[in-house]
Amino acid sequence: MVVFAFDFDGVLVDSARETGLSGLKCYCKVTGKEFPQDETELNNLLDEFEIVRPSLETGWEAVVIMHGLYTNKLGGKELQKSFQTTWKEKYLLEVGSTEEELKEYFNYTRIEWIEEDTEGWLQSHGFYEDACSYVRNLTSQHKDKVYVITTKGTLFAQNLCEKASLGLCKENVFGLESGKKWDTLSKLMKRHEGEEIVFVEDRLKTLVDVHNRMEGDGAMSFYLVDYGYNTEQQLEEARSSHSIYINVISTLSDIKFHS
Hints:
alpha/beta, 6-stranded parallel sheet, 11 helices
């Protein structure tokens, strides 16, 4: 039997606007800036954030992205091109907080939002219904062999899995607190010794990093969905430079495995 490990954001759930809103709420609290009162201005900010979203690696970075969009008025396309290499460290200094501090503030902001308006927080997410249906079918047959591995906080991910009725065991949801994805996948290899692991992501860099660190450790298949938070340039790179081990797919039903 095959073991399935799914990334969450960009594969099963569309959390771009929630992440942007959480980042903006946190940014305003940290800096003392007023939260946008005009609905059009707020929606425009979130639209620009969605353009930058493919460059975001972990949730707290939404805070410094919002600094660029809201305060510095940088356009989403310009920010997306070089956020990790140029703007991230610069904006972190301008905000005046450390990475660890922003992680804590961002996490607290989400918890506060959930406690004050759980339904509103859940409704700010969208789900890729075809992908969710695929996972529901898997868990209905092999619940113990289906996992989510995400950089989202575990509690947040578990709440969303429940909202989407994915049928996952809570202990099979590995969040930010679990460490690097390749460490979690190594643990799953030991837990399911001798079985193939199908790893599904929407970030090319993550797939390349995992492959490079785990090559030869066991049987793994790598899939990159083309509907998540990636760019045409990244998809083309996957198809041309990494096609020997990365399969680019448009739907989870394109996954090939032996049951």
